[in-house]
Design brief:
The protein is an alpha+beta fold. The chain is built from 13 helices and seven strands.
Length: about 350
């Protein structure tokens, strides 16, 4: 049997297996789920196979959201690596795809910069020719230096797209990706994983009394304080507005509460004067919610518990730390004028 026909029949068989398991698990028959389970039956990624086997054996949650997390962790990186390996043979389309992916949902990247990068990449990478119109043989197969430099520039743009412009720490997108990776590592290794959600108390009052520049100053100072109170494996991020998040891998609830209390006390000790007006900003405090990830649960649930604990801290007088064990049966409503 010709090799091409063998490959076609194997692909059909893997496709059937993938679709049958998708149906058996009650999942949506979408391209992401198909890609995950096709790779699972193809056994092209040992880590993916092992993790799915663990989830199924232990009857853990394996829904559309979890499949999307698996796709982003195991399938998408392979696609990016393939792009890097084939850039010399298909630089135009491949790098254009990379630019398109980078553009999607990343406000920090200048659209003009990306368009210029695309234009530059499309104009280079073509074989140089001699005056007789013949390709210069030795150099035709080598990636031009401009390609390498522009790929480095794109990597830098990607890094900037994961960084909060005001504070220099991770932004919300980077937090989401880091939490997903940390949860996967927790599933594989069995270690604890905790998160903190932190909100500056009465931040609106600071803005109203002292101006938005003073508010920005407080946010930058608090971000620096967070970084000083965590260790190397931890991730600090600006979650949105005056709210921050910390990912604590290999950290139990008890240890996470200790970290949270250290952060709270550090913020409480801050004494700031506005740079532009030289006004005393008064005491800065923050409320903190702590939650621990349960193996196999959707990440939205651990974030929701941390969020509920945070606003329980607000309702309890602010400038304190609460965790998921403090929550009552009734959901906590967000405190007014947080």
């Amino acid at each position: 049997m010709p090799q091409q026909e063998q490959y076609r029949q194997r692909s059909y068989a893997l496709s059937r297996q993938a679709l049958e398991l998708i149906h058996e698990l009650g999942l949506s028959a979408n391209p992401i789920n198909f890609a995950v389970f096709f790779a699972y039956f193809e056994k092209s990624n040992d880590d993916l196979v092992a993790l799915i086997d663990i989830l199924r054996t232990n009857k853990r949650v394996l829904d559309d959201l979890k499949c999307h997390e698996l796709y982003l962790r195991f399938i998408e990186p392979d696609r990016i690596e393939l792009l890097r390996e084939t850039v010399t043979s298909d630089v135009h389309q491949q790098v254009s795809d990379l630019v398109n992916r980078l553009c999607a949902g990343k406000e920090q990247i200048s659209t003009a910069d990306l368009r210029q990068a695309t234009s530059d990449l499309l104009s280079i990478g073509k074989p140089s020719t001699t005056q007789h119109g013949k390709t210069a043989g030795n150099n035709a197969e080598q990636p031009p230096a401009e390609v390498t430099q522009l790929l480095l520039d794109l990597e830098e743009m990607k890094r900037e797209a994961h960084t909060d412009g005001l504070t220099g720490i991770a932004n919300r997108k980077a937090f989401d990706e880091s939490l997903r990776d940390a949860a996967m590592a927790t599933m594989e290794g069995g270690e604890c994983l905790s998160i903190l959600l932190i909100d500056i108390d009465h931040f609106k009052r600071i803005n109203d009394r002292h101006g938005h520049q003073a508010g920005d100053q407080v946010i930058r100072t608090l971000a620096k304080s967070l970084q000083e109170n965590v260790k190397g494996r931890d991730t600090t991020a600006r979650y949105g507005g005056e709210e921050f998040a910390v990912i604590l891998p290999a950290t139990t609830m008890t240890d996470a509460m200790r970290v949270a209390e250290n952060i709270r006390a550090s913020i409480e000790s801050l004494h700031l004067k506005s740079v532009n007006r030289n006004e005393d900003l008064g005491q800065i405090t923050a409320s903190i919610g702590v939650a621990t990830y349960q193996l196999g649960e959707p990440l939205t649930r651990v974030i929701e518990r941390a969020d509920q604990a945070l606003y329980l801290a607000k309702e309890s007088g602010r400038n304190c730390v609460m965790n998921q064990n403090d929550l009552q049966d009734e959901p906590v409503k967000r405190a007014a004028n947080a």
